[in-house]
Design goal:
284 residues, mainly alpha, two-stranded antiparallel ribbon, 12 helices, 4 strands, 73% helix, globular
């Protein structure tokens, strides 16, 4: 018995792979790369087009109305068709994916296991997938406008779905009644989501009207609506990030050695410790 106790104490000296964190990523770091960086990049692309693509913009006209010129380019061209803005945006999409995937795992953990947690995972996954697709298959790509519009609709639907789940779960779990800060941010998120839906619907109506009636006013509303959608989406998830940061500090990245390899490695150093090490590994 005494020998067994000594063995257990002796085992504690060994660092079992996977038991100690090897890398830490703070929520602020993840939030910047997953939300702030893409939003900044989108607006940098939009603003820079007025300088790098000034000649094209000055002659830009509606697709079905070549005689109607617009001083505002739609986002689909600013970040999808024109260079170097296209490369800048795709870089932002690629860079933001790892951080976004980690955050999408942390947010639903505040809720209990169940269908709503799975729905939260599904919404964020579809949103990330459709954002990538709508960026790859831009409006002038070989796939055509219809494919671009379909993926944009998928992205919009997944975004609204994710927003709705966040607001719904905070209400039904009573989280908003336990913390005044969460209640205030919940109200702000509700307003943002409502505005997001209204602006999105207005934008989707304005575009076909602009093409059918050759209306510069409707097309301007469409362009401004696209810019606003990006802002509202970034604002909503920035608030969510601030809320989650109150519960989570970040992620610890751990490299885990297989149980078999760990037993072989440490038992060769001291064969009498093999059983104790195996029990310790199984706890992890």
């Amino acid at each position: 018995s005494a020998m067994g106790c000594c063995d257990c104490l002796h085992v504690e000296k060994y660092k079992i792979p996977g038991a100690e964190p090897t890398f830490f990523l703070s929520m602020r770091f993840l939030g910047f790369w997953s939300m702030i960086f893409p939003a900044i990049t989108a607006y940098v692309c939009i603003i820079s087009t007025f300088y790098t693509q000034a000649d094209i913009i000055s002659n830009y006209s509606l697709a079905n109305c070549p005689h109607v010129k617009s001083p505002l380019p739609p986002i689909s061209y600013s970040i999808g068709s024109w260079e170097p803005q296209k490369q800048m945006w795709m870089f932002a999409v690629i860079v933001h994916m790892p951080s976004r995937m980690l955050l999408s795992r942390s947010i639903p953990q505040i809720w209990l296991e169940g269908i709503w947690r799975l729905a939260g995972y599904a919404a964020t996954t579809i949103e990330m997938f459709s954002l990538t697709m709508v960026s790859l298959f831009y409006v002038d790509s070989i796939a055509g406008f219809e494919v671009h519009a379909a993926f944009f609709g998928m992205w919009w639907g997944a975004t609204v779905w994710g927003m709705s789940i966040m607001i719904h779960m905070q209400r039904v779990t009573g989280h908003i009644y336990q913390d005044p800060y969460i209640y205030r941010s919940w109200l702000v998120k509700s307003v943002i989501m409502t505005a997001y839906i209204i602006v999105s619907c207005t934008t989707s109506i304005a575009y076909p009207i602009s093409q059918r009636n050759c209306s510069l006013f409707a097309f301007t509303i469409f362009c401004i609506g696209e810019y606003t959608i990006i802002t509202l989406n970034a604002a909503f998830w920035a608030i969510v990030l601030l809320e989650v940061s109150r519960d989570f500090e970040g992620f610890r990245i751990v490299a885990v050695m297989s149980k078999r390899r760990a037993i072989e490695k440490y038992s060769t150093e001291n064969p009498t410790m093999k059983i104790a090490i195996k029990k310790k590994i199984e706890k992890h």
